[in-house]
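Illustration 12: Glucuronide carrier protein.
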Amino acid sequence: MTTAIAQQQEAARRPLRWRALVGYSLGDFGCNLAFSLGSTFLLYYYTDVAGLTAASVGTMFFVVRLWDAFADVLAGRAVDRTMTRWGKFRPFILFFAVPLLFMSFLTFRVPTGLGDAATLLYVYVSYAVLGLLYSLVNIPYGSLASAMTQSVHQRAKLVASRTLGAAAGGVLISYIIAPQISDLRAQKDTLPPDVYLDQAQAIFTNITLLFLLLGSIAFGLTFLWCHETVVRRSASVTVKETFATLRQNRPLAILCGASFFYLLGYYTVTGATLYYATYILGDPGLAFQVALLSTGVQILITPFCPKLIARFGKKTLFQYAGVLTVIGGVGLFLTPDGMVWFALVCLGIKGVGFSLINTMMFALEPDTVEYGEWKTGVRSEGATYAIFSFTRKVTQSIGGAATAWALALGGYVSATAEVATPDQPGSALLAIKVVFGLVPAVAAVLAMIVFVTYPLTDERFREVRDESEARKAALDHAVLGDRGAV
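Figure caption equivalent — predicted structure in token form:
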């Protein structure tokens, strides 16, 4: 049995097969067909298609996305209490992925003629259920990385593949939606307002149905091609053990603190993307180029991340990337209206920075799992990732709401059945530039200050991992010795 355990530990550090990397990439591709679609286009859909006010949407985002954060913790507990013949994580992907994608369709299908109160109730309920289903898929998916390998290099590959999948999903969404909205807005003066809104609704309906098909295939391949190899001493983790692990996990606390500020800036940007393209750059069709340079640049940057990590280390690279985010964000705020080329340059600079930051966040989180196990003797992938994701959801709650509230404060005018494409005041345009450029720059500075004290360098991680594995091997050997003595 000791030999079998040693073989499992060795397997947990072997190079991953290409199918495992592709399968893991497809998992985040599927997640982003629901997540990025909502974070990038849902505010626009609610104000310019469903006709809700920016203020009411901002409040809804804050409340429901805060609920999403607690849903992450519930999902993490469910994961840590689960063990099946398929493992701890894959069953959640198998059973909840399709309902998640179908709920995305319903979220972008707000019924007409319900009245203000009933419409808001539908929006709150549908978005809350979407968030719960997303947690039940994304928490186990994110936790899966720490169970697939314990190799620093192989985890870097997993994170790179994940980032590529997420970027591909985000680019595909903007590539499909932005040109259709641009073409429709070009016809705004020739179409009756009710026809315009019906056609806008049809765009989102058809796209979410397409994503239901594509996402189901992607998640199915993730389930088939990704497997757990890391040895664990127990199948489930108690609530007491979970909180003991998290309370003593200083690297996780610092990572969550830095991530809070970075992501606060990111989520203000995603909700404002289509507004920035439409009202600052002058063409909603440019939302594709904006998305390509903001997040799609990850497709070019991510393949180099494993080598960059090997050269600089995750902590140093994380800090360098913040500087690029600040430069690009300030440039976007100062960009004159209609100066597309300058905005695209700034987007490229900021996009490289955030691509590295996002990759590093997901590369650092599995390391904190190993640290928590080394510190307490308990391995709690689900709870650790849930706390990390909890932080992301809180920032999504605040960032998404802040964007909507900023628009409302700036006097943004929502669509109505009488005026489908109203003109916007200068104060609304200033609000768009603030949330799209200045907020992420300030947030990045705060994040870098927090992350200075992060203690888990790559060298320290290897020491922690090796010591933890040696403890488990010694404990298993002692248990076998006791049994032999009996």
